[in-house]
Specification:
This protein has 109 residues and is of the alpha+beta class. The protein has a single domain, classed as Beta-grasp domain (Ubiquitin-like (UB roll)), CATH 3.10.20. 14% of the residues lie in helices and 24% in strands. The protein is built from two helices and five strands; from the N terminus they run E-E-H-E-H-E-E. The protein has a five-stranded mixed sheet with strand order 2-1-5-3-4, with no helix packed on it. Strand 1 and strand 2 form a beta hairpin. The longest helix is centred in the N-terminal third of the chain and has 8 residues. The radius of gyration is 13 Å and the shape is globular. The relative contact order is 0.28. GO terms for molecular function: iron-sulfur cluster binding.
Length: 109
């Protein structure tokens, strides 16, 4: 029987480190996990389509395909003047083993 490994990463909100333990595919995206687990107001307002940029985070230690930006993400971020690889829309990051050990910092916009 295949045992699914727990995915552990750290979220930093307002300087507070919050350890997160979850499983692959437990939420449609990182945005939904953050919104629900941290009860974030006005976060992810477009519902995860990568257009509103209310779910911007900085990332450290994400690997694999999860580190790649595609679809609307680069365009939405560049409209706001964000061009750094570490700045991401959390709605475009899937909950996979690529997040294990990562650090996610919620940006206050």
């Amino acid at each position: 029987m295949h045992m699914e490994k727990t995915i552990n990463f750290t979220v930093i909100e307002n300087g507070i480190q919050i350890p997160i333990a979850t499983r692959h595919g437990s939420y449609p995206s990182l945005m939904y996990l953050l919104k629900e687990e941290l009860q974030l107001e006005s976060f992810g307002e477009c519902g995860g389509v990568g257009r509103c940029a209310t779910c911007v985070v900085t990332t450290k230690g994400i690997s694999g395909n999860s580190a790649l930006k595609d679809r609307n993400e680069p365009v939405t971020l560049s409209k706001l003047g964000f061009h750094e690889a570490a700045i991401r829309l959390s709605c475009q990051i899937h909950i996979t083993a690529d997040l294990n050990g990562a650090e996610i910092r919620i940006l206050e916009l």
